[in-house]
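Workshop exercise sheet. Pairs work together: one partner reads the sequence aloud, the other fills in the structure field after running the prediction. Swap roles for the next sheet.
Pair: D.N. / O.F.
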Amino acid sequence: MSQEIQYSFPSETVKKEGIKLGLYLGVILLVVSVISMYVMINGTDFKVVSMVTGGVTWLLMIALSAYFSVLLRKAANGFWNFSQALKSIFIMLALAVAISSLGSSVFNLLNPEPQQIFFDKTINLTIETMESIGADDDLIDKQVADLEKARDESRNFSIGQTLKGLGISLIMYFVFALVLAAILKRERPAFLNVSTNEDTPRPEVDNQ
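Structure field:
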């Protein structure tokens, strides 16, 4: 027999699951970013390879984030409102992007050559592209100077630059979390009852 009682959102369970999934997602994104860089710098056509690799990486990130968010909703017994979904998903994504960003910074510090090659190819591609569209020399020089500055800064690990990049990424991922929360929110129907039997804690439908 079931008795209708007030449903309590399992915040601690969802939080622990979010941290676990965030760790998994962060490691996966880090590995994907490293592999993507090696693919781009070793490709025969840097422009085409970078576009394809970048597109695949973004699609994979979106797909994995959405899948992990669905798993996170399961930890909430399948129901959460928009606010609960947003908070839970953003915590997971924030942890993932922190691991990916900091891991990438450490990797580039220990093994700087791939990133330097990537910047050099990007500079050459920028010059070729801007010249092909008839851009002014001053504009080309400015773009190249900005890229060279970013390349030089990447040679030294900077906590300030790392945190700045992380902050920008967190803003982007917060917007993404808003989208996922809006899509995956699922209010608990009022007619669902929660069993008072401790051996069957999951919600059940009272058909009577």
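Discussion prompt: The chain is about 75% helix and 5% strand. What would you look at next?
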